[in-house]
Amino acid sequence: MVPVSSEGRVSRYASRIYPRYIVIVMTVPLTLLGLLDREPSYGYDLKRDYDTYFGKGKPLPFGQVYSTLGRLARDGKVAAGPSEPGDGPDRKRYAITPLGRQEVEAWLAEPAAAEPFLQTVLFTKVVLALMLGRDAQRFLDVQRATHMRRMRELSEIKRDGALVDALLADHALFHLEADLRWIDVTTARLGALAETVRRA
Amino acid sequence: MTIDALPMAGPLLEARSVERSYGRTPALREASLSVTAGEVLAIMGPSGSGKSTLLHCLAGIFTPDAGEVWFDGRRLDTLGDARRSELRRTAFGFVFQFGQLVPELTAADNVALPLLLGRTGRRQAYRRAGDWLRRLELEDLAGRRTGELSGGQAQRVAVARALVTGPKVIFADEPTGALDSLTGEKVMELLVGLARQEGTTVIVVTHDARVAACADREVMVRDGRVTDPYAGEVLR
After folding, report:
1. Tens-digit pLDDT string for chain A (200 aa)
2. Secondary element (H or E) of residue B18
3. Is residue A107 part of a domain?
4. Chain B residues in contact with A125 (beta carbon < 8 A)
5. Which stretches make up the ABC transporter domain (chain B) (predicted)?
6. Residues of B whose CB is below 8 A from A147
7. Considering the entire predicted model, what is its pTM?
8. How far is A109 from chain B (nearest CA, A)?
9. Are residues A16 and A33 in the same domain?
C-alpha cells in the first residue's frame, strides 16, 4: 500500500528513501572467499575462523560451509585439493583461484550501499581488509563518504517533503548516523584491531 | 599597507599548508582547504583533531605559524590585527556554541550591535535588526533580554546577528552543540536556508553528521590534517 501524506500527496518514501530496502544477510560466500584469500584452508578451519570473527551468536552450520564451498568450486572461485586422510574422515584443502581473488578484491573495494542495518557487512569488510593487509582506513573513508552523500539526499527530502517523508527520512538518518559513529570509533581503533586479527 | 593579491580569480577562502601549534603540541599540520563563494562546507573530525583551530585560522582569529590564508584574493594571515578585526566585523559573521550574545541586552540590541560598531546609524541598525529577527521568526522576542531566552531562541538570535552585516562568510563552530535534535535542526535549517538565499558562504565545524548533512560537502580533520573523504572513492 502506498502511504499518503496528511496533505493528500502520495509519499515518495517507497521510491526515494528506501529504494533498495532489503534485509542484508551475511555474505557467507564472499566472507569464506576472503578467509581463503589469506591461505588455503580445510572446511573445518574456515568454519572456526568464520565463527570466531563473524558468526558471534550464530555459528555457521557445517552443511552450509561445504555446500558454499561446493558452489564456489563449481563457479571456478575456489579449487578443492585431493582428499587427504585426517584424524576423522578424509578432508580436502580449498584454495582461492584468481577469479575468486578478483571477486574478493572487487567486493572489498566497493562501498556498501548506504542503507540502514548494514553493520555486519561493514564489520566483515573491515576485519577482512585488515586480515588481508588491505587499506582498511581507505575503505572506512569511502564508506563514510557514501553514508554522508545519502544523508545529504535524505536531508533534502526532509526539507522538501511532507511530514510522512520527513519522519521516514529521519528513521533512515538516525540509522546511518549510528553506522557513522561506528565508523568513527573503528577508525580510532584500527591499529589495535589490526593487531588483534593479524595475531590470530 | 600592501596586500598580496592572487594572480587570478580563485576560491573565496583558502588555507594553504597551514601549521599551528599550541606550545609543543601541533594542532594543524600542512592543512589545506579551499571554499568557493556560496558554498556550505562542513568541517568534521574527532575532538582535538584541529577542526576549530582551522576555523579560527580561516577567520583570521588565529594567525598560522606557517602557511597562508587567502580571502577574496587577499592574503589574510599577513594583515595586521586592526585590518583583520575590521574584516571580521564587515565580511565575516560568527555563530558559536555558547556565549556570543550579551545577556543583559535585548535580542534587538544584540543583533544591531555589529552594525552600530560599524558606525551604521542607530535607526537603520535597529530597522535591519528587526528585519532579520522577523526572518528568524523572532519578532515577538525583539525586546527580551537574551539571557532570558531558551537555547534555541538564543542561537537564532546569534544567526540573525551573524547575518545582519551581510557577510561574505559565516563561520559556525558547533552551532547546535548545546541544543536538542529538533531545535538544532531548526537552527541549521534557518542558518543554511538564509545563507543560501543571501549567497553567503558557510563554514560549519561539527562532529554531528546530521548537521554536516545540511552542507554541500564535508572534509575531515584528523591529527591536524585535512582529508577529502571523496578522494580515491574507487578503491581499486
Report:
1. 334 444 444 444 434 444 333 333 458 899 999 999 999 999 999 999 888 888 767 788 999 999 999 999 999 999 998 887 777 777 889 999 999 999 999 988 888 777 766 667 888 889 999 999 888 998 899 899 999 999 999 999 888 878 888 888 898 899 899 999 999 999 989 999 998 887 65
2. strand B13-22
3. no
4. none
5. 13-234
6. 209
7. 0.78
8. 5
9. no
pLDDT (0 to 100) of residue A100: 96
SS3 A80: strand
CA distance A173 to A161: 15
Q: What's A43's domain CATH number?
A: 1.10.10.10
A97, A131, A150 - which closes a domain: A97
The ranges of chain B with pLDDT < 70 are 1-10, 99, 229-236
Query: CA–CA separation, B14 vs B55, rounded Å?
Result: 11
Contacts of A173 in chain B (CB under 8 A): 210, 213
Predicted pLDDT of residue A197? 84
**Cα B76 to Cα A102, B6, B62, B88, distances in angstroms:** 50, 11, 11, 11
ipTM of the complex: 0.77
CB distance B68 to B95 below 8 Å:
no
| pLDDT value, residue B231 | 60
For residue A135, the distance in angstroms to the closest alpha carbon of chain B comes to: 9
Name the residue ranges covered by the structural domains of chain B.
103-165
pLDDT value, residue A19: 38
Instruction: Enumerate residues 39 to 98 of chain A having a beta carbon within 8 A of any beta carbon in chain B.
Output: none
pLDDT, residue B13, reads 96
Instruction: Provide the domain limits for residue A178.
Output: 1-20+113-200
Detail the DSSP E strand segments found in chain A: 41-42, 78-80, 93-96
Q: How far is A112 from chain B (nearest CA, A)?
A: 12
- A189 plus A140 within the same structural domain: yes
Residue A12 lies in a domain: yes
Closest CB to B210 among A105, A145, A173: A173
Question: How many helical (H) and strand (E) elements, i.e. helices and strands, does chain A have?
Answer: 8, 3
How many domains does chain A contain in total? 2
- B234/A contact by beta carbon, under 8 A: yes
CB A144 to CB B235 under 8 A? no
Residues A76 and A151 both lie in one domain: no
Do the domain assignments include residue A164? yes
Chosen for mutation from A141, A157, A160, A173 (greatest number of chain B CBs closer than 10 Å) is A141
Out of B46, B220, B236, whose CB is closest to A109?
B236
Which alpha helices (H) appear in B50-121, and where do they start and end?
51-58, 81-90, 107-117
